[in-house]
Design a protein that fits this description.
Elements: H1 21-30, E1 40-45, E2 51-57, E3 65-69, H2 79-90, E4 94-98, H3 119-132, E5 138-143, H4 145-157, E6 167-171, H5 177-184, H6 187-209, H7 219-224, H8 228-239, H9 245-252, E7 265-268, E8 291-294, H10 315-325
Parallel strand pairs: 3-4, 3-5, 5-6, 6-7, 7-8
Antiparallel strand pairs: 1-2, 2-4
């Protein structure tokens, strides 16, 4: 049972010196660098005998724990992770970033990596954390790709999710992967964001070939790929058991699962997100009554800078903390 505290959503307004969705995306991610917390790293063996790395922000035993699932090619050092845990630490809360396979500067052992609909990975990670911390409040937040996977898990689990975590939040999740894939493969997005994603993804894929042979991979086509559609067609879909890139994008999207969520969930998306077209965002009729939609006009893709130049990254951590605090269990 949760506390009956009302949750007031703080309004977000982008600073006048940072206009437009691209600037609001790029500046926080590249120029508002913040020193990473003193993470404690663990290596976990997965149920299929693969491996991931997990970074912890420790604190006093018994305090609330926030689990963060990062975005595409993100990590515990992404700006949203460092700003969130820097703030939560001052509140006496703890945190953990379970890296998706091949992330965290560690190549995993199996041919598979990670994908946007990997709710099975979300499940075993959260269940393991709950088993390790059976008596503390646990909250989960997914960012971008991690947000889609978390929301998909919530919809699949329904009432069962409450046995694992107390509440959840998703930030700038691409809930319609086809819409996001198409957006990222066009114009400025393709020249800037997709080019950077592919640089990292391609490097990892070729590095893994030195460890695990993949006779089905067309290496020449991969070197020439310039879109996410091409990468997902050549790598993500076949490696993870999807029939095609279209099958992957459709079946991995969390949007059809939003009406099945029965755990308190905060879903934040901006209307000027370069990655997520505004027309693809869910309306209140698309989600269950347990889902709170927050869709500010500005903020970019996981940007949310505020204040006078050079700006601060406080709005998102404060909003997430306030939401999670409103769902702390009643003392026994």
């Amino acid at each position: 049972m949760s506390r009956a505290f009302p949750f007031a959503i703080p309004a977000y307004s982008a600073p006048v010196w940072l206009p437009g969705g691209h600037a609001q995306t790029i500046y926080p991610a590249t120029l508002m660098w913040k020193k990473a917390p003193a993470y404690r790293r663990e290596s976990w063996i997965t149920p299929d005998l693969d491996s991931i790395v997990v970074d912890w922000v420790d604190g006093r035993a018994g305090t609330p724990l926030v689990v963060l699932f990062h975005g595409l090619e993100g990590s515990s050092r992404s700006h949203y992770a460092t700003s969130l845990f820097d703030f939560l630490y001052t509140q006496g809360w703890r945190g953990v970033v379970p890296h998706f396979r091949s992330c965290g500067n560690v190549i995993n052992r199996l041919p598979r990596a990670y994908h946007a609909g990997d709710s099975g990975e979300i499940d075993w990670v959260l269940c393991r954390i709950r088993a390790q911390h059976p008596d503390v409040p646990i909250f989960a937040v997914g960012v971008s790709l991690g947000g889609n996977a978390l929301l998909k898990w919530l919809g699949e689990q329904g009432d069962a999710a409450a046995a694992v975590i107390n509440a959840a939040a998703a930030v700038c999740a691409p809930m319609d992967l086809t819409a996001t894939g198409n957006a990222l493969d066009q114009g400025f997005n393709r020249r800037v964001y997709t080019r950077e994603f592919l640089r990292s993804l391609r490097k990892k894929t070729f590095a893994k070939l030195k460890l695990v042979d993949n006779p089905f991979l067309d290496q020449h086509s991969l070197r020439l790929a310039t879109t996410l559609r091409e990468f997902d067609h050549l790598v993500t879909a076949p490696v993870h058991g999807f029939k095609s890139v279209e099958h992957y994008w459709q079946s991995a999207s969390c949007k059809p699962y939003l009406s099945k969520i029965s755990l308190p969930s905060l879903v934040i998306n901006t209307k000027n997100d370069p990655f997520v077209p505004a027309e693809s965002l869910p309306a209140q009729g698309d989600v269950s009554g347990h889902v709170t939609l927050v869709q500010p006009l500005e903020g970019g893709h996981v940007g949310f800078a505020s204040g006078a130049m050079p700006g601060k990254l406080q709005w998102l951590p404060q909003t997430l903390h306030r939401f999670f605090q409103s769902h702390l269990p009643l003392p026994r």
